[in-house]
Amino acid sequence: MQEIKALYAEKKDAIKTQLDEFKEVREKADDKRVFEELTFCILTSAVGPKVGAKSLEAIKDILLEASPEELEERLTGVHKYPEKAYYIVHSRDYLKSEYGLKMNDLVNSFKDRLELREFFALNKNIKGLGLTQASHFLRNIGIKGYAILDRNVVRSLNDLGVLDNPKPPTTKKRYLEAEGKMTEFAAELGIDIEELDMLLWSMKTGHIPK
């Protein structure tokens, strides 16, 4: 516990700076920028944020209008799974048809944060997220209170004895149980859960997540 607190004291400023940048995405950016964050999280799943960021840059200029074939061509050689283009276009066209791609209005329409996450995680028309990446997306647009239980965070929690299993949860029930344990651990430390999440991720990777 003391080692974690000491590490947090060392990295606290960098963590808070990054969280402030996430908050600005929704406060200052337009709906396109918020959709770009959603796309980034779809692209990050299974390959990590570096590949996700590089892939987003490859398609950003045509993201809102391109066909899946056009996006797939851009992603080929950049992303391990260029076929994720079809996830992106399906999600984009659904959000455009049903909500006019008004991402800020859509997010703000939810009063319950768990319902908000489930809309993006469990909606059959939004492809390629799940609870982990939906949490990632919402954190990246400045919404607090979620655990991003990817392999790095889960392994750190397992090393610390907070979780019994070093593998990320694969069902909603297990995810919520693990998130609950992490929430309790964060409270014991006196650290917000999103700050603890970033701290634990940095313990495995050596840097603060984006």
List keywords for this structure.
single chain, 210 residues, mainly alpha, Endonuclease Iii, domain 2, Endonuclease III, domain 1, 11 helices, 68% helix
Can you describe this structure?
There is one protein chain. By secondary structure, the chain is mostly helical. The chain folds into two domains: 2-23 and 147-205, Endonuclease Iii, domain 2 (Orthogonal Bundle), CATH 1.10.1670.10; 25-140, Hypothetical protein, domain 2 (Endonuclease III, domain 1). 68% of the residues lie in helices and 0% in strands. The protein has eleven helices and no strands. The protein is globular and about 50 Å long. The model has no long low-confidence stretch (mean pLDDT 93).
Indicate the percent of residues in helices: 55-70%
Given as residue ranges, the uncertain stretches (5+ residues, pLDDT < 50) are none
Number of strands: 0
Annotated CATH homologous superfamily of the largest domain: Hypothetical protein, domain 2
